[in-house]
Specification:
Elements (H helix, E strand, L loop, with lengths): L2 H19 L3 H14 L5 H12 L3 H14 L4 H13 L3 H17 L3 H14 L3 H16 L10 H4 L1 H9 L11 H13 L3 H17 L3 H14 L4 H13 L3 H18 L2 H14 L10
Helix pairs in contact: 1-2, 2-3, 3-4, 3-5, 4-5, 5-6, 6-7, 7-8, 7-11, 11-12, 12-13, 12-14, 13-14, 14-15, 15-16
């Protein structure tokens, strides 16, 4: 790629990212498609396009974009995850579970034990099988014992021996946390696969709360968005998404979340709740004219 083409590619990609940040999703799809045309050998604009289509409620288009990315980069983590999510929305559960299996294998090979465990959990939740239970149990044992080596750090397993000995001695019971957000995310996928949008939305909100409590802002936002895909009119998910954005200091994103929710409530004709949301937004963002009292 010439320097001029590369600059055009970077500008198109940047334009897509900026459009997403501003909530201009249709504009983002145009920019990402331009980036794909300029650099057909790159997976990034394809995965970005897939993410936008998911947010627009267009899982078939998202799947096409993610599969294009995987044709270029077969082990692309983001593309595999996106493909699985799109397949869940499309209720193609067998393919979704198989894609999560593939994602788990890719992550395990990269030495990312906890992330591999998350993918294996999702595959098991969507379509249980003895093989998936066995793989999940094996990964869980490895992660707890710290025996998953990170490439380039051959001493990782040895360094974990002390922790394993402590567990054997009863000093650490390796108890599962009361609320595991990764389990909740798996519940979102499983509920979506069986067409239970309400359960998916509820699990997504719980996952987002757990991620927020753990200080994992990006994961909390992703959980909210996954829930909104299943329950677009869930007021609590939209409100929590705005709160997370405010936590991170992203007042513009929070304002967009509040404004989008107000438009949704206007369509539903829920004037009482709309006024309540407007009041919340006005209190949290006093300088934003969109939320001034009429």
């Amino acid at each position: 790629m010439t320097e001029t083409l590369f600059e055009r590619y970077k500008e198109a990609l940047r334009a897509g990212h900026v459009a997403v940040l501003r909530g201009r999703l249709e504009e983002a799809t145009i920019a990402y498609r331009e980036a794909i045309e300029i650099a057909r050998d790159r997976s990034v604009p394809r995965t970005a396009l897939g993410g936008v289509h998911l947010r627009l409620g267009e899982p078939a288009a998202a799947l096409e974009a993610y599969e294009g990315a995987l044709a270029v980069a077969p082990d692309d983590d983001t593309a595999l995850l996106g493909r699985a999510q799109a397949l869940v929305v499309l209720r193609r559960t067998t393919e979704a579970a198989a894609t999560y299996d593939r994602l788990a294998a890719v992550r395990e090979a990269a030495g990312r034990g906890p992330d591999a465990l998350e993918a294996a959990r999702r595959a098991l939740a969507i379509e249980p099988s003895p093989e998936r239970r066995e793989r999940h149990a094996g990964l869980l044992a490895e992660v707890r014992a710290g025996t998953v080596d990170v490439p380039g750090e051959p001493g990782a397993a040895a360094a974990a021996e002390g922790a394993a000995e402590a567990e054997a001695a009863g000093e650490a019971a390796a108890a599962v946390p009361p609320v595991d957000p990764e389990d909740l995310v798996a519940e979102v996928d499983a509920a979506a696969a069986r067409g239970d949008g309400a359960a998916a939305g509820a699990a997504a909100l719980e996952a987002a709360r757990a991620y927020r409590a753990a200080g994992r802002t990006a994961a909390a936002i992703d959980a909210c968005l996954a829930g909104i895909v299943q329950q677009p009119a869930d007021v609590e998910l939209h409100l929590f998404l705005a709160e997370i954005a405010l936590d991170a200091g992203w007042s513009g994103h929070a304002g967009d979340a509040y404004a989008g929710l107000l438009r949704l409530l206007a369509l539903d004709g829920d004037d009482a709740r709309r006024e309540a949301v407007r009041a919340i937004a006005a209190e949290r963002l006093p300088g934003d004219p969109r939320f001034a009292a009429a």
